[in-house]
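REQUEST FORM: STRUCTURE PREDICTION
Request ID: SP-0412
Submitted by: Lab K.M.
Chain count: 1
Length (residues): 458
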Amino acid sequence: ALYGASGHAPGDVSNSSAPVVAGGVVITGSTVIDFTRAHTPRGVVQALDAHDGSARWTFDPLVGHPDSGSANVWAPLSVDTEHALVFLPTSSPSPDYYGVERPGDNRYANSIVALDLNTGELRWHFQHVRHDLWDYDTPAQPILFNWQRDGDSIPALVQLTKQGLVFILNRLTGESLWEITEQPIPPSQVPGEHAALTQPKPIAPPPLLDSFLMPHDAWGLTPVDRADCRRKLENLHNLGLFTPISETPTLMYPGSLGGPNWGGGALLDERGLLLVNVNNVAFSGRLVPLGEQPAAGNGPPSAGKQFRVVMAGTPYAAELGSLQSFLGLPCNPPPWGKLIAVDLYAGRILWETALGSVHEMGPITAPFHIEWGTPNLGGGIATAGGLFFIAATMDRQFRAFDVNTGATLWRYTLPVDATATPMTYRYRGRQYVVINAGGHHMFNRGSGDYLYAFGLPP
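STATUS: Completed
RESULT:
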C-alpha cells in the first residue's frame, strides 16, 4: 500500500492542498511536520490512476538522503496539460534548522521540479535554496503564464519564495528568464554543519523585502520600546539574509512566515502584472543544546511568541519567534504587511502599499484604522474589471484595491480574520466574490466559521 503495509498514514502526514487531476491521473503532495525530528516521513509525491486508483508513479525529492525526510509538496501543484508537465513546489528537508545529517545541496528540496505528467520522469528542476537552514520552503503554487519579450511568447512560470525573491523561469526548460547571480553566504558556526557557499538571486524583479536590519533601524512607538528593540538587535548575530542559525541568537529576516506564503499571487497575464501580499516581520532564533533549560514555551513557530521546537535525532532544540518589543509590536519598521504590484516583463515594482491596520494589534486597540500593515496569511484574486480582492490581515478587513494604483476602493469588517483566498463566480449575469472567515491559531486571534458573499455592481 502507498501508506505502508497497514494501510495507515503516519500521524505527522496530512494534506494542506487539493490534488490536481489531469491526463487521467490524480497527483497529490503532502504536509509533513518537518521541524520536530530528523527522520520525518519522506515527501513522496504520488500519482494515481483517476479511473481505478492504481499507482501510476511516485517521485521522492530526497533520494540519496536516508538520514533525513520531507522535502514534501504542501503548496498547490500546477499543471501544463499542453506540454504534459506537472510542477512541484518542494519544501525544506528535515529538520528545518539543522542539516549536519543531510550534507550537500539536498537536490530537489526547496525547488521547482518539473515532471512528465504521465510517467513522473524528471524533466528539469530549479533549486532556489541550497541546504536549507531557515525553513524557506517553496510556499506558493507556481503561476503559469506566457512571457512576452521582443515579440516572442515564451511558456513561463513565476515562483514566489519566502525570502521575497521572484524567479521567472522558462517552464519547458527551467532556464531563468532573468540573469541569476550567486549571493555569498556566511559559514555556519555549528560543528559539522556546511552551509552552501552561495544562494541564487535574480537580477530582476527586485526583492520584495529589504532583508537588512541593523540596530539603528530599530522601531518603537516610544523611545523606551525602541531602545528595547535596539538592544535586542545589538545582541543578535546578523550578517544579512541567509545568516545560518547557531547557538548564538541570530536574526532571521524574513522569518519562516515569509515574505510571500501559501496565498501566492494573482497574475493579469495580458499585462504581466503580478499582485502579491507579503509579510515583513523579523524573527530571531537559536539552537539550544539538549539539556539546557528552555527560555521559551514548547510548540511550533508562531507570530508573536518565542517557542522551543524539539528536533529529535539531533543534539539541539530550536528557539525562535518574531522579534518584538515588550509592547508586543515588531522591532522592524512598518509596514509589517504589504501588497505589491510587480511588472514581470519589465522586472520592476510598479507600486506597493501597506496591507492591514494595526488598530486591533498590540497592547491597545484603537477606534480608527492605522494602516501600518499586519502579518498576513491568505491570498487575493484579481478581476478583469481592475480590482484586487484580499482579506488575509489581522484586522478582520476584506478589501478591494485598484490594480493600477494600489488605492483602497472598498473594505468590509468581518466577524473574524479571513486567513483564506477569496473566489469569484457569476450568477444570473452578476459577478460575486465570496470569502471564508475562520481566523487562524498562529495569530492568537478569534476563530469562527463564516462564509460571506458580495455582489459587484452590475
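NOTES: The chain has two domains: 13-354, 375-457.
Reviewed by: T.R.
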